[in-house]
Structures are given as structure tokens and as C-alpha cells.
Amino acid sequence: QVQLVESGGGLVQPGDSLRLSCKVSGYSFNYLAMAWFRQPPGKEREFVATISWLGATEYTESVKGRFTISRDNGKDMAYLQMDSLKPEDTARYYCAGDPAHEIGGRNEHSYNYWGQGTQVTVSS
Length: 124
Known about the structure:
This protein is mainly beta. It has strands at 3-7, 10-12, 18-25, 33-39, 46-51, 57-59, 67-72, 77-82, 91-98, 113-114, 118-122. The strands form 2 sheets. Strands 2, 4, 5, 6, 9, 10 and 11 form a 7-stranded mixed β-sheet that branches. A 4-stranded antiparallel β-sheet has the order 1-3-8-7, with no helix packed on it. It is globular and about 40 Å long.
């Protein structure tokens, strides 16, 4: 059974940083394209960033230059480093895995595997 478990969320102030982690088990992590999505309060889930098997990355425009997605294939872990956080980054953040493509896309339907999410709240 494939499991994705996120951690690292919390309540922070604007301008602060957080690093989210996603631990994958039950699948060969080297062959999972990984992504982070988020769901703000009262809104639909949206794409944040994705990273390919070999480390190629893609970001949604609103987080470029502030967020960094990465992976450690030796530890079966994906990360989302979030700097210069803004109140509009408040959301539940989910990691997702796509086993079918070297690089996942922006469409959540490409991802077969999902974690339960971790809450990030940015507020003064």
C-alpha cells in the first residue's frame, strides 16, 4: 500500500519560513514524479510545484522565487521550502505522487497517490 505522509505545517507570521516534508512508502520513490498542491479556505485545490524523477521543477507563478521543491531519493522524501510567506499562502498543503510520468503536471488528476495534508496558516 502506497502511503504519503506530510509534516511541517504550522502557524507562522508573514515573512516567515516553513519547510514541509512528505515521506513516501510502498512504492519505488525514484520513479514517482512528486508535487505539492494546496487548498485555501473555501477554495478548490490548486497546483503549487512539481519535481521530476531527475529533479526538474515547475512552479505556479505566485510562489516562484519564494518556494523551492526538492527530493531526496535516498530517503524517499519530498520537500517544499517556503520562504517569505504571505497570508494568501494559508491553505492545507498536500503532497502527491504520479507513477506514470517522469514529470507530473499541474493537473491533480495526473496524481494517483495523495497524503492527508498539513495545515499552513500565515497570520500576524
